[in-house]
Structure formats: C-alpha cells, structure tokens
From TrEMBL:
Cross-referenced Pfam families: WSC
InterPro entries per record: Sialate-O-sulfotransferase, WSC_carb-bd
Keyword terms, alphabetized: Repeat, Signal
Protein name: Allergen Cul o 9
Signal sequence, start to end: 1-21
All residue ranges annotated as the WSC domain in the record: 33-129
Length: 157
C-alpha cells in the first residue's frame, strides 16, 4: 500500500482549496447612482476610502464625484470638505467611522452650490451604482456587498 508524503499531502490540500477559491466581482446594477448613504466621520490616519482620491478645486459636486468613482469601478463615492472626492468599495464601518448627522456634512460643493460635499473631517457617502459580490470558483454568487465589506474590515483591522 502506498503512503502519502507530506509534500504530496500539501499538494492535494492546495489544489482542493484552489478549486474552491472565491473571487470578488464588480458589476453595474440597477442601484440608483448617487443614492445618499449618509454622513460619516473620517480620520486622516485611518481613511474611510483609500481606492482613489481626486481634488476638484472649483468643479466638485456629488454628481462629479459619483461619476469619477463609477468610471473607476468603485462601489462608493465620498465628498469631503467641499473639494475632496474619495472612492472605495467598503461600506463605512461605524466602529471606525461613526455615522453622524447630515448637518456635519455642511460644506457647499463648489461645482453645485445647492449640494453639500462633506465637511472638515466628515464624508458625504453616495452609492455609484456598482455592486460588489463574491463568486465561487464555479461562478455561483455567494455574498452581497455589505457582507464583503464587513469581511474586509475584520481582516484588515
């Protein structure tokens, strides 16, 4: 009778896990582009969104920020302090970034003076219309975006 060597056993385990691998997929969905999620506290040393940053000195608006993040395939757009536009895929986790009154996001957008583009230390978060989900190695949808966001935060915290 043949026995498994440790190397062969590791090889079997590796390929078993490989076939069960999960992938994150992004797609444009029927979600309303620009849907307001809320106003959240942000911290310079622990940014809420780290995927992309743009500064629009005179042209920032919710629409401009959402379109910027959507075109780069991010799930969320966040306007901060009037001029900043941040993009990311993780829903703000309130243990790190507390949801606050929308009154804290009171800085007017320079590109649309009737809109508020966050505040100093506060981000006005909006959906971009992109949805994030996990699929199995066999192409089956596994999770929705909120579950993925929670998992990312638990792993990176």
């Amino acid at each position: 009778m043949k026995t498994f060597t440790p190397f062969l056993l590791l090889l079997v385990i590796y390929f078993a896990n490989f076939s069960l691998a999960k992938e994150i997929c992004l797609e444009t969905t029927g979600k309303t582009r620009g849907q307001h999620v809320g106003c959240f506290e942000d911290h310079e040393n622990q940014r809420m969104f780290r995927g992309f940053l743009a500064h629009y000195n005179q042209a920032n608006s919710i629409e401009a920020c959402v379109n910027t993040c959507h075109s780069r395939h991010f799930v969320y757009a966040g306007a901060q302090n009037g001029h900043g536009c941040y993009c990311g895929n993780s829903h703000p986790l309130e243990d790190y970034h507390a949801r606050v009154s929308d009154k804290k996001c009171d800085k007017k957008c320079p590109g649309h003076s009737t809109e508020n583009c966050g505040g100093y230390g506060f981000v006005s978060v909006h959906e971009t219309g992109i949805e994030q989900f996990l699929i199995s190695g066999k192409g089956k949808r596994l999770e929705d975006s909120n579950t993925i966001s929670d998992m990312k935060w638990k792993i990176s915290a």
